[in-house]
Write a sequence for this structure.
């Protein structure tokens, strides 16, 4: 588990991750923002979805016992979830 955390942190740094202390809500200001789900930095059981470009991101919640994984961009079982550093969405850079 520690190895996975270290690997996630290293990948975030390699990808040019800019730390983000906000809730992580993206601006949804481009069509490509609708192609994936976005982490809610303040609530690991929730995530953001851009359904349409140039409209506000909509909050979504994982099913019971689920937590949002930034690595897989899906909800996973809480026992498999590990914290990873928060990164600013591209629309906020």
């Amino acid at each position: 588990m520690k190895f996975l955390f270290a690997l996630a942190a290293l990948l975030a740094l390699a990808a040019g991750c800019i730390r983000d202390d906000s809730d992580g809500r993206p601006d949804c200001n481009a069509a490509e923002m609708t192609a994936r789900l976005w982490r809610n930095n303040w609530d690991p059981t929730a995530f953001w979805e851009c359904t349409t470009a140039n409209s506000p991101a909509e909050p979504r919640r994982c099913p019971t016992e689920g937590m949002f994984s930034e690595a897989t961009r899906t909800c996973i079982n809480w026992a498999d979830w590990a914290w990873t550093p928060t990164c600013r969405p591209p629309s906020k850079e």
About this structure: The helical segments are 2-14.
